[in-house]
Design brief:
Residues 17-160 form the Copper acquisition factor BIM1-like domain. This protein is α+β, with helices and mostly antiparallel strands. Helix content is 20%, strand content 31%. The protein contains 4 helices and 11 strands. A hairpin with a 5-residue loop joins strand 8 and strand 9.
């Protein structure tokens, strides 16, 4: 009986470690802590089962703002969508038209996700950010944050990344089809990591069919289909 309970506890720890945290903008609720496990699930579209304004509303710049995530996978595909208005369930504005590939576990911080040129917002307008991640398990995980567009809004005090991330630029499978950014490593380090099959960049280099399929799923995620 004790062994059974130990296995259950281990499974629970592994499940949590495979999820992700939304640090900035502040998520609607902490969907990782044990006290919320009966209420919320990151497997649930579109916002892990967390209602609008469950938590704080974060001020975000008019042109677009920062994103800070705590990633728990060896590699992760990241999609970020925006829904305008109160209690929006239509996250039809992509803030990552080039799919992001993050390598390693840890903090991923992007200084600015720019709004599309055809999207105009005014000071005081509200909306919600939806973050979707896909890791080595191949399943989509969801978290949301509610925002208020403000002219003089500021980002997180510390926006340094512990992980490298790559923005996919070409779906045709060219060898140099990614644009990279790293937290504490050089460009040459990033390129060397690209040959490692254990990370996202390596997979992109050796599996072009998978790359095309995953990038194509971005549209499906916007429409609300999980994997």
């Amino acid at each position: 009986m004790m062994a059974y309970k130990s296995l259950l506890s281990l499974a629970a720890v592994q499940a949590v470690s495979a999820h992700f945290g939304l640090v900035f903008p502040e998520w609607r609720a902490d969907t990782l802590i044990e006290e919320n496990e009966d209420r919320f699930s990151q497997w649930t579209y579109p916002c892990a089962g967390v209602d609008y304004k469950e938590g704080n509303v974060t001020d975000w710049p008019l042109e677009g703002g920062a994103l800070k995530l705590d990633l728990h996978h060896p590699w992760t595909y990241v999609f970020v969508n925006l829904g305008l208005g109160e209690n929006s369930t239509n996250f039809n504005i992509s803030l990552t038209p080039q799919v992001l590939n993050a390598t390693n576990e840890g903090i991923l911080c992007i200084d600015e996700l720019t709004l599309p040129s055809d999207i105009e917002v005014s000071d005081g307008d509200v909306g919600s950010i939806q973050v979707i991640t896909v890791g080595d398990a191949g399943s989509a995980l969801y978290n949301c944050a509610d925002i208020r567009f403000k002219k003089n809004a500021e980002g997180p005090k510390n926006c340094s990344s512990e992980v490298d991330y790559f923005a996919v630029k070409d779906q045709n499978g060219a060898e140099n089809d990614t644009e990279s950014s790293s937290g504490n490593s050089s460009d040459s380090d990033s390129q060397q990591e690209g040959g490692n099959d254990d990370n996202a960049a390596g997979m992109l280099g050796v599996n072009r069919v998978a790359l095309t399929s995953v990038v194509g799923l971005a549209a499906a995620f916007v429409m609300g289909f999980g994997l």
